Amino acid sequence: MTSAPSHFNSPSAERFPVVVVGAGPAGLTVGNILRAAGVDCLVLEAGTREFVEQRPRAGVIEEWAVRGLERRGLADRLLERAERHSECEFRFDGRAHRFAHTELTGRHHWVYSQPLLVTDLVREYADVRGGDIRFGVRDVRLHEPDSDRPAVSYTDPDTGERRLVHCDFIAGCDGPRGVSRAALPARARTSRHDYGIGWLALLAEAPPCADRVLFGMHPGGFAGQMPRSSRLTRYYLQCPPGDDPADWPDERVWAELQRRLRAADRPPLTEGPLLEKRVLDMHDYVVEPMVFGRLFLAGDAAHLVAPIAAKGMNLALNDAFLLGDALVAHLAEGDDSGLDGYSARCLRRVWEYQDFSRWLAEIFHGVSDGDSYRAGTTLARLRRLFSSPAAAAAFAEQYLGTADTY
Ligand SMILES: Cc1cc2nc3c(=O)[nH]c(=O)nc-3n(C[C@H](O)[C@H](O)[C@H](O)COP(=O)(O)OP(=O)(O)OC[C@H]3O[C@@H](n4cnc5c(N)ncnc54)[C@H](O)[C@@H]3O)c2cc1C
Fold first, then answer.
1. pLDDT tens across 166-182, in order?
2. C-alpha to C-alpha distance for 138 and 158, rounded to whole angstroms
3. Environment class of residue 241 by beta-carbon count within 10 Å: exposed (0-12), middle (13-18) or buried (19+)?
4. What is the model's pLDDT at position 10?
5. What is the pLDDT of residue 11?
6. Do 195 and 307 contact (CB within 8 A), yes or no?
7. Are 378 and 370 in contact (CB under 8 A)?
8. CB distance 201 to ligand 1 below 6 Å
9. Which residue from 122, 101, 153, 140 is spatially nearest to 35, judged by alpha carbons?
């Protein structure tokens, strides 16, 4: 946290009720909710518009999150273009095992890539709702977020000048490496879990071999297929943490994917050029509380969940719905209840999803470390999903995020 700069009372300083730092799914959703209610806000983003609209990451959105976007007028294009998945598939012991979650719950997973969602949200915020968004800003600093006079400063990318913006609230939506986490006071508690494994995250210019998510549990390591569109597919390969993507030439990648995802009664994967290859060291963290004075954290700035269960963007959207609505209630109606309960309400779903992610990590990686005892219990858990309706229902509820209350 940085204290007020000497030009704190500068006449050139601007004022907005809310400054949102970061134009990812969380920040853009908060901005859109505020604009729809006629609340002025400023979104500051370090990347260019092209960069944020093209950065490939998530793709799976839960149905409650789609409905939340729809209620706020943010899902028109998503509803036209997204695919709906009604099942996923586990592959182990050389066979494919379909898990038809929609038959069990009536709910779907939606597949819409993060770049498409971010593009829609930027367009709605800036071009339709007339919101102020400044791309490419440098050296953003938060000033006195713990006080009732917070401010944010940044360097204008065109002029090189420092700009100061006074505000009532700062929404810290700038992800894991942003300034909001760096500005947390000493009393912030960060709980962290390291899985001790890596995932090679791949984006292939190739259609998925089936229109469903595939989870491959193989003695050689986990492999996964996550369809993104009819021509793009995300794949994952378990690898040692810190592995160098350069050690994974395309031929090695495809050979491992084919081997780990092979199933007797299924066709091989469709291969194609690999557009992205990066190693993720799998870890989670949670910052508690998510509020420090006038700084409200949302999304990955507050909690990271490794992409094991495809939950991070969903949590970012949940935070954004709660924060956007709470800020509107406070600023437009003087109702503080949403802001007062914000952190506790977010954290209930956050911890549920963290727990599911750890449970699923055990399923994904339990057969591959050479420990025959661990492999035996992992296979027992997997078989139970297909033999016990109670186990299947519990999995579906967590996989789809459909519990009645969080
Ligand atoms: C390979 C991969 C696959 C994934 N798949 C899924 C999935 O299928 N489903 C799912 O739910 N989640 C998934 N996730 C997680 C998901 O991508 C994140 O949880 C999501 O992006 C979080 O959104 P956010 O808005 O909190 O943060 P971000 O998307 O990280 O946005 C933060 C923004 O802040 C900007 N910023 C950073 N620092 C500053 C600064 N100092 N000043 C101004 N701006 C700054 C950044 O440029 C960025 O635009 C995946 C992640 C990865 C890596």
1. 999 999 999 999 999 99
2. 10
3. middle
4. 65
5. 62
6. no
7. no
8. yes
9. 122
Q: Which residues make Cβ contacts (< 8 Å) with residue 340, sequence separation at least 6?
A: none
The Cα–Cα gap between 260 and 299 comes to 32
Q: What is the 3-state secondary structure (H, E, C) of 246-300?
A: HHCCHHHHHHHHHHHCCCCCCCCCCCCCEEEEEEEEEEEEEEECCEECCEEECHH
> Is the CB–ligand 1 distance for residue 323 below 6 Å?
no
Which residues, other chains included, contact 331 with Cβ-Cβ below 8 Å and sequence gap of 6+? 17, 18, 37, 39, 168
**Residue 84, SS3 per DSSP:** strand
* Best of 304, 313, 349, 353 for a ligand 1 pocket test (most atoms within 8 Å of beta carbon): 313
- Contacts with 345 (C-beta within 8 Å, 6 or more apart), sequence order: 322, 406
What is the topology classification, in CATH, of domain 14-85+112-191+284-356?
FAD/NAD(P)-binding domain (3.50.50)
Mutating to test ligand 1, I would choose from 57, 133, 277, 295 the residue with most ligand atoms within 8 A of its C-beta, which is 57
Give the model confidence (pLDDT) of 190-221 as tens digits. Answer: 999 999 999 999 999 999 999 899 999 999 99
Query: In DSSP terms, which residues pair with 283 in a beta bridge?
Result: 194
Residue nearest to atom 39 of ligand 1 (CA): 178
Task: Show me where the domains of the chain are located.
Answer: 14-85+112-191+284-356, 88-110+194-283+367-400
Single-letter amino acid code for the residue at 106: G
Give the distance (Å) from ligand 1 centre to CA of residue 301.
9
88-110+194-283+367-400: CATH number? 3.30.9.10
> In the block, which residue shows the tokens 């719905």?
321
